[in-house]
Amino acid sequence: MASSQATSDSDDVVNSTLGDAVIQGGTDLPSGMTPEQIDAIGTGKVPIHRAGKYRSPLANPSLGGPATVKVGFVISEIRDYQIQDGSFSAEYFMSFTADKPVPKLHPVFTNGHDTTCTALVDVETFRFYRCTGTFTSPVDLLDYPFDRQRLDISVEDAVYGVDTLVFVADPRRTSLDAGFRISGYSVASVGANTFKHQYPSRFDADDLYVSRYRFTLELDRFAQSAAFGVYVPAFIIVLISLIGLWVPAEELEVRSNAGAPMLAAAVLFHYSLIQSLPATGYLTHADKLMLGVYVSLLMNMTTTWVFMIVEEERIDFWFRFFRAWTPPATVLVMAASVWL
After folding, report:
1. Per residue in 131-147, pLDDT tens?
2. Helix orientation angle between 252-275 and 285-305, rounded to the nearest 10 degrees
3. Are 320 and 231 part of one and the same domain?
């Protein structure tokens, strides 16, 4: 039955690999196994294959070894990329070229939903699809606003495992359409890889690996936009606050107005930044920058508060001291926030 599947694409998905399967019995378990090992394999009355490397009901030992399937993947468009949850919509072409006849493929996208594929060519050794779908990929914001994001599209066959087909990435057929653009980002790299994946045991005798293909598009945020959108406002806030160092110590109200409003501006600016990003368990580069801004503003405001408690004859000394050493200290703090 397995050999007939290799030459017919009209078979139904259900029970398509059970042609030479039998129901598992007590004699099918290897002798000398511990109770823990037996429990791990399972003793349920599930279909198994006695021949071949894998016992799973999804195995296909009668096929005579797996086919090598080269996968081509060309992205024509990516829309609606959302940094909050890593979701995006894509339109793409996908091809499967086998080195021998294989059963009908049932591609499923492990990180996608609402996917639709139209078969343009469907023969025993070659399948070609045009697809659309929505996908999600993990978001990495550690280096934000100079972050690099990975947009992945992963596909595997819904039925067959590595004893039926093994995917191989075809680098010559992995690319982007001419004129590809995505708003706010530049393309850093395009690539693909394949690997064997094993799910946690879903049923007794579930020992079959599946071959998975993953297309990866890496995107870099535009550096100029990131600098003007994050770094320039932060440094302007700090520079304006430093103006108060040259206001005479007697003008405490004027000196205070150079620090407190800038602190409010920094908080509001930081709030606007984090509103556009998802919550993370780490500090982004922008968070570290804003910590430097807060520390710098705190140092500046402290130079004003000191004049409220020092003796009058010492005011001139502290005025000159703060004016000489606060700017260099601020530079060190901001440099640390940028480079650490």
Report:
1. 999 999 999 999 999 99
2. 170
3. yes
